[in-house]
Write a structure and sequence with these properties.
With 380 residues, this protein is an alpha/beta fold. Helix content is 34%, strand content 28%. It has two domains: 3-121 and 322-369, NAD(P)-binding Rossmann-like Domain (Rossmann fold); 126-236 and 275-319, Dihydrodipicolinate Reductase, domain 2 (2-Layer Sandwich), CATH 3.30.360.10. The chain has a seven-stranded parallel sheet, sandwiched between helices. Helix 1 crosses helix 11 (319-336). The radius of gyration is 20 Å and the shape is globular.
């Protein structure tokens, strides 16, 4: 049994803390006392602590006694929080979706004898684990990931609910999307190249460019075609584009009734209520990861992993929290069991390349009924 601290008690952070509390002593922190009271009511064995992670001295003092840190803070806080944890010489599992390149902290992590497993959610996360595993087995030519979290009940106009902060979702809609085509880096605006895709159990969804490749642009430069796209219900993109083109996502402040406010702050506040996933509201996670490559017999294989996951009524846990959070707790237990202990910053593809690590993650998720269905097809 290890002593673990989870930074952030939001929807995903709370799922992580509760899952880890089954086998470990867990303390969960947040800057909001009401949020901590809610998670304590769900799981009495958890310890809770009020903490502002931007206070770096207090953060380092707080995490000092713990065996492992889980960083589940919002994306805009992620990079600096991760850096502070590494400087405190603490091993860490990170799921904060920050825009900076986590590999920039690799040298610092090695210098401080730290293992930092980053981007450890559903996407980025599981797609990376799968890619890393098959990169060892095949001469890969293609990687494709389609992923989205969606409400079961559509509500006009957006037909969307956010399992995390709206400002992190808006980041997906504004950050330029990078993908690899014919060995070259291509940068496109987010929300472009929309396509309709059919999914079992769901029907037709709309896919669009988003900046999801992240670390694999640097760690897998030999793969000539790599792309990730986000999934939403048809029509969602058009409404988001209207907001984007009209300036609602601008960070440049404007004066309204003698008050300075950025359109982005205003929009986030409005969308927080519009997109808020209510307690007990049913939603789902849809994901399709495809890799194509040549096997040792010279045959071209197409391997697909499909995930369809729903809100769990039994544990009152959202699907996005399950599929994201349990990937992180799988990585935490993988590390604590001694299966992976290299020092530095490691995105999941650098861990998935080890067969026993990949199988551990898949089996851990399966035990929690987060099941990736695999199909293999020879295409020549």
């Amino acid at each position: 049994m290890s002593n673990i601290i989870v930074l952030g008690a939001g929807m995903v952070g709370s799922a992580i803390a509760i899952d880890l509390a089954k086998n470990h002593t867990v303390t969960v922190t947040d800057f909001n006392q009401n949020t901590l009271d809610k998670i304590k009511a769900k799981c009495e064995t958890l310890n809770t602590k009020l903490l502002d992670v931007t206070d770096k001295i207090t953060l380092q003092k707080t995490i000092a006694p713990f065996d492992l840190v889980i960083c589940a803070v919002p994306g805009f806080l992620g990079f600096e929080t991760l850096k502070t944890i590494i400087l405190a010489k603490k091993n860490v599992i990170d799921i904060s979706f920050f825009p900076e390149n986590s590999l920039d902290l690799d040298k610092l992590a090695k210098e401080n004898n730290v293992t930092a497993i980053v981007d450890c959610g559903v996407a980025p996360g599981m797609g990376n684990f799968i890619l890393g595993y098959y990169n060892e087995k095949l001469k890969l030519t293609d990687f494709d990931c389609l992923v989205g979290g969606l409400p079961k009940t559509k509500k006009w106009p957006f037909n969307y609910k956010a399992p995390f902060s709206p400002i992190d979702v808006i980041e997906e809609y504004t950050r330029p999307a990078r993908y690899i085509e014919n060995g070259k880096l291509v940068i496109r605006e987010a929300l472009t190249d929309c396509e309709y895709v059919e999914f079992e159990n769901v029907g037709t969804l709309e896919s669009f460019n988003s900046d999801g490749l992240r670390s694999i642009i640097h760690t897998m430069p030999h793969i000539p075609n790599m792309k990730e796209k986000t999934l939403r219900y048809p029509g969602h993109v058009e409404y988001i584009k209207v907001l984007k083109e009209s300036g609602f996502f601008s960070e440049e402040k404007i004066i309204v009734n003698e008050t300075d406010i950025s359109p982005l702050d205003f929009t986030s506040k409005i969308l927080f209520n519009e997109w808020k996933l209510e307690e007990g509201e049913e939603e789902m996670t849809v994901m399709k990861v495809t890799v194509i490559g040549e096997n040792s017999n010279g045959k071209k294989e197409k391997i697909t992993y499909n995930l369809y996951d729903e809100y769990c009524k039994e544990t009152n846990t959202s699907s996005m929290a399950r599929s994201t959070g349990y990937t992180a707790t799988a990585a935490a237990n993988l590390f604590l069991s001694g299966l992976f202990n290299e020092k530095g910053v490691f995105p999941p593809e650098l861990i998935g390349k080890h067969k026993r690590c990949f199988n551990y993650i898949i089996d851990y998720l399966k035990d929690r009924n987060v099941i990736y269905k695999k199909t293999v097809k020879i295409i020549n």
